[in-house]
Amino acid sequence: MSNEQTRDILEHARQFHRQVSEFYDQLRCQVEKERIKMLLDYMIRHEKNMVKALEDFERSAPKHLLGACYKVGRQFRPCSDVVRDMKISSDMSVDEVIGMGLEFNDCLIAVYKDRAESAPDERVRGVFQNLVALAQKEQRLLSRDAQRLQDL
Questions:
Q1: What are phi and psi of 88, to 5 degrees?
Q2: Is 30 within 8 Å of 98 (Cβ atoms)?
Q3: SS3 per residue for the chain
Q4: Interacting residues of 100 by C-beta distance below 8 A, sequence separation 6+
Q5: What sign does the CA torsion over 65, 69, 75, 77 have?
Q6: pLDDT (tens digit per residue) in 37-46
Q7: CA 100, CA 76: separation in Å to the nearest integer?
Q8: In order of start, what are the domains of the chain with their CATH numbers?
Q9: What is the pLDDT of residues 18-72, one digit of tens each?
Q10: What would the pLDDT profile of 128-152 be if each residue is shown by its tens digit?
């Protein structure tokens, strides 16, 4: 267990989204199928949009929410390990790429849920519950859009 502020957790989340975006960009250079490249382009944009959304939220959030300090359990390090340990190949399928994206998203959802459960008050809890809802919505969109790509 460690102490963190809400702003620290948001920074960890932004770093994770950047790391995932870089991972997708590297993978894009290795894959051969045009359909997979299109999917990865979409996923890279998504990760960059998530970084921007978190930055925008932090700029507009009340200082007392960002400065809320509390003990946290699950760290972001395991999510980073998932990215680092992900096995990739040049002939990956759409389903395999989507599976990776969903696994990355599951890591964030687990961390956000943990933060919501250990939040010091209702307002901070609401921030992380909203992030859980956003991540779950993004998972549904990714699955839907990937299905459309397979139908092309």
A1: -130, 160
A2: no
A3: CEEEEHHHHHHHHHHHHHHHHHHHHHHHHHCCCHHHHHHHHHHHHHHHHHHHHHHHHHHHCCHHHHCCEEEECCCCHHHHHHHHHCCCCCCCCHHHHHHHHHHHHHHHHHHHHHHHHCCCCHHHHHHHHHHHHHHHHHHHHHHHHHHHHHHC
A4: 86
A5: positive
A6: 999 999 999 9
A7: 17
A8: 2-151 (1.20.1260.10)
A9: 999 999 999 999 998 898 999 999 999 999 999 999 999 999 999 989 998 877 6
A10: 999 999 999 988 988 887 778 776 6
**Other CB atoms closer than 10 Å to residue 129's CB: what's the count?**
17
What is the token pair recorded at 134? 């956003």
User: pTM score, two decimals?
Assistant: 0.88
CB 28 within 8 Å of CB 92: no
Residue 124 corresponds to which tokens in the numbers above?
């901070």
What's the one-letter identity of residue 30? Q
74-101 burial: b if 16+ Cβ within 10 Å, else e:
bebeebbebbeeeeeeeebebeebbebb
